[in-house]
């Protein structure tokens, strides 16, 4: 073989290795559990025939179907209107060993003026720091939606965020007892916007 063709082959090998390398360094997929709160005979918050269990399930399904990123695996604790104990949920979560758990809920209050999105993490969890960081990032992602009023993260001893062996955040997506919140929580387009922002937030996770 001529010296020039050898040089040419060497060059080709160098270029192809440059293209192969990033493939080998592809990021490990991130597994996320989206936990739709309540279900079955447990309706969660209710308001004139509107149920928390239905709203959070609709948004969880939307997150799963809107996610097209192969590096993000979305798992749902429930895919139907079934009663699922908190223990069963954390059993499922801890068997999967996800990178992140988002438990979706909707609030209610006797004070009908109360509104907005709230985040909860557990300071009893060894993943408290990471959970708080995730809550902060999710807060920013959801605040992009002008329909939502997001508030700071609070700590609470709720089962899912305390017993999950992974960073875990409870997201209360709004108050069903507040007219403004109820409108966006039950609107298909607004639900899509919320789900899109959650998917965007997931895609930004490292
Ligand atoms: Zn709830």
Automatic annotation (TrEMBL):
GO terms for cellular component: outer membrane-bounded periplasmic space. The keyword Hydrolase applies. It holds the Pfam family Amidase_3. Keywords: Hydrolase, Signal. It comes from the Bacteria. Residues 90-200 form the MurNAc-LAA domain. GO terms for molecular function: N-acetylmuramoyl-L-alanine amidase activity. The keyword Hydrolase applies. Residues 1-20 form the signal peptide. It catalyses: Hydrolyzes the link between N-acetylmuramoyl residues and L-amino acid residues in certain cell-wall glycopeptides. SUPFAM superfamilies: Zn-dependent exopeptidases. It is an enzyme of class 3 (hydrolase). One of its GO terms (biological process) is peptidoglycan catabolic process. Gene3D superfamilies: Zn-dependent exopeptidases. Its EC number is 3.5.1.28. This is N-acetylmuramoyl-L-alanine amidase. It comes from Flavobacterium laiguense. The lineage of its organism: Bacteria, Pseudomonadati, Bacteroidota, Flavobacteriia, Flavobacteriales.
